[in-house]
Amino acid sequence: MAKHRRDVAKDSIIKSMLPANTGLDIFESSAGRGELAIELQDAEHRVRVSNFKPGSLQFDIPEDIVNLEAGLPYEDASFDVIICREVIEHIACNLPLLKEFARCLRPGGTLILTFPNKLSLPSRLYHLFTGFYNGLKSPINPGVFFGEAHVNLISYHEMDYLLRDSGMSQVVGRSSDIRPGAWLTAPLIPVVRLLTWYFLFQYKKKAQEHRKDKPEFVAYNREIYEAITSTELLLGKDVIMSARKN
User: Fold this and answer.
1) Per the UniProt record, which residue ranges are transmembrane (predicted)?
2) How far is 102 from 60, CA to CA, in rounded Å?
């Protein structure tokens, strides 16, 4: 089965975030059928994948059956790159898994995550009128098997914080999927940028956990501001983040 055009675009950005050399040790968590993994293997990388249960993988790639909620069965510093593609929103507690990813990365290694863009303008408008977000548009039905629904939507700035708390830095955010209808919300971009600037840099400058009166906090807020007010992340349906292990 051919990849959907949205997956082609997403995987193209993921591959652009890889270190620029061959022979990398790459782990893709919950890789599904393994389309991206086989492309990386064909590009002369050493690839290992996991899935929650057997039967999904369709290519000859080393596969482990792993419950990501229970940790990773790998030694410290095992991989140059870890990819977690459209999985993290299915995990109830993100921080323990992110710390496991960091543990299994070599120093300077790259972590790449993709997940639904909770803070896109279409998603914000949907939330305004329904109380739900794109990616979780209605309540999860009782009895749905845990992990098969989006149980933990997370925003860009929340993920940035968790990545840094896990020992990562040099965080970069992109989006690969801007739907035509999203452009209808584009007239709101200047207003959103202005209000976001005010609340990130001016509002309650000395609130204890959100202080804005020190240069290092201003610099961090500026990084977040530039990311979440970019046209890509204001209109895109997904987020693709990369970070490097310190």
Assistant:
1) 181-201
2) 27
What pLDDT is stored for residue 22 in this prediction? 86
CA distances from 180 to 72, 134, 185 (A): 39, 15, 10
Contact indicator for 29, 197 with CB cutoff of 8 Å: no
> pLDDT category, 1, cuts 50, 70, 90?
low
Q: Indicate yes or no: pTM above 0.90.
A: yes
Token pair of 98 as six digits: 């992110």
Kindly list the distances between the CA atom of residue 33 and the CA atoms of 84, 108, 135, 190, 238, in Å, as whole numbers in the listed order. 14, 28, 22, 41, 20
Q: Quick one: residue 203, left, alpha or beta (phi over 0 = left, psi -120 to 50 = alpha)?
A: beta
Contact predicate 178/121, CB 8 Å: no
Q: Can you tell me the distance from the alpha carbon of 230 to that of 103, in angstroms, rounded to the nearest whole number?
A: 31
If you average pLDDT over residues 170-178, what whole number do you get? 96
Max CA distance (Å), the chain: 56
Q: Yes or no: say if 61 and 34 are a contact pair by the CB < 8 Å rule.
A: yes
Output the six-digit token pair for 1.
């089965």
pLDDT greater at residue 145 or residue 43: 43
Query: Is 39's pLDDT higher than 70?
Result: yes
Answer yes or no: CATH 3.40.50.150 is held by domain 5-118+135-181+236-245: yes
Residue keyed to tokens 């690969």: 176
Cβ contact 167:196 at 8 Å: no
Q: Where are the domains of the chain?
A: 5-118+135-181+236-245
CA distances from 85 to 40, 197, 202, 203 (A): 14, 31, 36, 35
What gap in Å lies between CA 153 and CA 86, rounded to an integer?
11
Is the CB of residue 17 less than 8 Å from the CB of residue 172? yes
